[in-house]
Prior knowledge:
2 domains, single chain, mainly alpha, three-stranded parallel beta sheet, Rossmann fold, Tyrosyl-Transfer RNA Synthetase
Amino acid sequence: MENEQKKQVVFSAIQPSGTITLGNYLGAVRNWVRMQDEYNCIYALADMHTITVRQEPAQMRKNILDAYASIMACGIDVEKSIFFIQSHVHTHAEMAWILNCYTQFGELSRMTQFKDKSAKHADNINAGLFTYPSLMAGDILLYQADKVPVGADQKQHIELTCDIAKRFNGLYGNVFKIPEGFIPKNGARVMSLQNPLNKMSKSDENANGCVHLLDPPEVIMKKFKRAVTDSDACVRYAEGKDGVNNLMTIYGAVTGKTYDEIEKEFDGKGYGDFKTAVGEAVIEELRPIRERYEQLIADKAYLEDCYHKSDELALRISSRTLNKAMKKVGFIK
Ligand code: AQP
């Protein structure tokens, strides 16, 4: 326990906005699993963030449980880490409101995710979508996190989190630990297999662009075989070869091979052989996850037990920071 207290704190969350993707896994969740022994890890399903885009309630309920079981199947162990559901821990909404009042309109307007999602959901540009980064800042700051393992797309939100924390600390003293983003060297930005200029997303309308963790092997292989490449017919990492670069990134992230090693391995071979090798490597990486997911999703009582235990721990830890912040801004008991 003494040792536990010396460990640095890791916090990260994922939205249950659909089936978890290979991008989510390589960019974030795989690191969550790897960090569990070295750090005090606190992870969440960010279901409050998810409703910034309209969801069908029955589907959302299913997505939450599926996402919870999928992330556990990747190797999150609730005996070592906390893995809670954001909407079950009321401190998040309360901290978000406080931080909204310390976040500038101009800062939120510059967020590329807000711009992208507003363009994608032009009929529902709601205030929650706009203030998403202050809710996320609260998620992280509530736990006094040292490190936040995320994909490259979240870098801007982490930077804003640090700016908000520094502003608050500047006014009131050391309330929040200033966190640091932890972005993997390989797999930080997995792109769509159909449009390699866009990131792979849970909500991609083109089903062939996105590999889901729970896709059966034959579906995964079909998606890789259909992946967009180019007419160069040479496996090398170079500017303008976005489709091939993306496949090399995925292959490298899964096998641990460098771009040089991959180029040598496929020297003189065509894209057909390369795509098959990438497909096979991903299938083998995801196979145990899918098998474990099937066991977990069949045991709803166990899942419920896991998140209830984690919800309580998260509430206890986050209440300490929330109470401090409330006192600092001048609220009375
Ligand atoms: N394509 C990606 N490559 C690498 N990392 C990625 N992440 C997301 N997409 C990629 C990382 O996964 C974590 C969880 O993401 P999220 O669910 O909070 O939100 P998101 O980034 O908006 O993910 P999606 O899949 O694109 O969801 P939708 O379609 O709902 O918007 C984060 O650490 C993220 O960096």
